[in-house]
Design goal:
The protein is mainly β. It has one helix and 17 strands.
Amino acid sequence: MGNVLGPAAPRAPRRGEPLGSPGSFDELHRQCKEVFPQQMEGVKLIVTKTLSSHFQVTHTVHMSTLGPSSYHFNATFVGDRQLGPTEAFPTLVGDMDNSGSLNAQVLHLVAERIRTKAVFQTHQAKFVTWQFDSEYRGDDCTATITLGNPDLLGESALKWVATLNVGYGGAHASYYHRANEQVQVGVELEANTRLQDTTFAFGYQLNLPQANMVFRGLLDSNWSVGGVLEKKLPPLPVTLALGAFLNHWKNRFHCGFSVIVG
């Protein structure tokens, strides 16, 4: 006798993988901004010293040819509660320059999903600004309330991050994409309603781990092009950086060289 097979049961529709949390709202723009090279001018020396597993200090000396030279002292304290490779609470960061100006940040974990941040800034002996943030970290979303600079919309994925901030003074949008382990790109658009000005910038980053080198390039709507090349010198804790920037519209060119120890 043969076997008789009944009709197969219909398969349930496949569901996509659940979205993960996009992380801190401040980190959404950070990935895009890190792709862009920082302009270099003059000579800069950075020395970092780790005093303990919780405390680190950094000395920065910048000798400029366009403006006054400066010295910055930065101190960072990190608490015992570690939630990730880049998250520990409480965290206190302070940066003071030779003129007495201070930038300070305090990050604290109120509950498992609620993080708070306070930012204070002074210019010489005068108090300039302050800002308080409260952030709720969900399973697949992040909600942030900022006193002084509202952030309205943020969305992220695994290999790309798209963000939009809207405030009274205008709007700021950015897009970050990680093509692979070596190539990252970022696009940034900022509109200022007070100055009636809109700027656009494109940046890219090339990682060459075998050569211990990182290159960042920039092209913006102000006809500026530039790049910064960083070269590590293992086993020494030294990084050399060389940068050059050219503005075609203003016919301006400047370059810089820095040594980073630590």
